[in-house]
User: Which sequence fits this backbone?
């Protein structure tokens, strides 16, 4: 597991802590988007585009990072 983690960090060209911060940022945003997506079917007038907008935003963020 340690070797695969080192390989992943090398491929991402990131330190352990930078990778952790970025991954936590993505995870936090997914939790928020998921919470809004969970609330939306209960109260359809709330968060009508929040989850899909956040998913699109995160997709673009990750794609941009892949190019660097």
Assistant:
């Amino acid at each position: 597991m340690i070797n695969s983690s080192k390989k992943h960090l090398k491929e991402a060209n990131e330190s352990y802590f930078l990778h952790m911060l970025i991954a936590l940022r993505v995870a936090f945003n997914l939790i928020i988007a998921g919470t809004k997506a969970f609330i939306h079917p209960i109260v359809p007038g709330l968060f009508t585009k929040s989850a899909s907008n956040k998913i699109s935003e995160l997709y673009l963020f990750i794609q941009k990072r892949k190019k660097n």
Q: What stands out?
A: The first helix runs from residue 2 to 12. The helical segments are 2-12, 16-39, 50-67. Residues 3 and 47 are 42 Å apart (CA to CA).
